[in-house]
Amino acid sequence: MSPDLEKAARLVDDGAAFAAVKGDDKIVSHTSGVSFLYSLAAERGSLSGYCAADKIVGAAAAYLMARAGVSEVYARVLSVKAAGVLSRYAIPADGLISAESIVNRSGTGECPMEEAVSGVCDADRAYAAIGERLKRQTK
Q1: What is the rounded distance in angstroms from the CA atom of residue 136 to the CA atom of residue 139?
Q2: Distance between CA atoms of residues 57 and 98, nearest Å
Q3: Distance from first CA to last CA of the chain, Å, rounded?
Q4: Domain 3-138, what architecture?
Q5: pLDDT tens over the chain, length 139 residues
């Protein structure tokens, strides 16, 4: 684990939902879910060279991180699908717990963002699918 990823992981272990670190630059969110990561990707475009840590990384978050160009990922919970996505984009990932899938907040089924990217094979298409799902959720 690189020093930047260790810093990002520590921020998540200390209560952040998401953290990205590149040297002295830190981006931190306490908002759970992919909406912050989606907004960050939309606003900044690139997180090239940043190491990212998140409490839960499913395929949707993995596609967003890949599209943004993060260098390395740490997750407390890393889904099998997310590990596959990150591997496809040659992004090293370390997860504390491996999960078969990510469930929704009520625990009644799969996370809606995971559903949005099921069958998607590329980060740009995943980004579009996540954006559409987020729009529908806010209506």
Answers
A1: 5
A2: 10
A3: 40
A4: 3-Layer(aba) Sandwich (3.40)
A5: 899 999 999 999 999 999 999 999 999 999 888 899 999 988 888 999 999 999 999 999 999 999 999 999 999 999 999 999 999 999 999 988 888 888 878 888 888 898 899 989 899 999 999 999 998 877 6
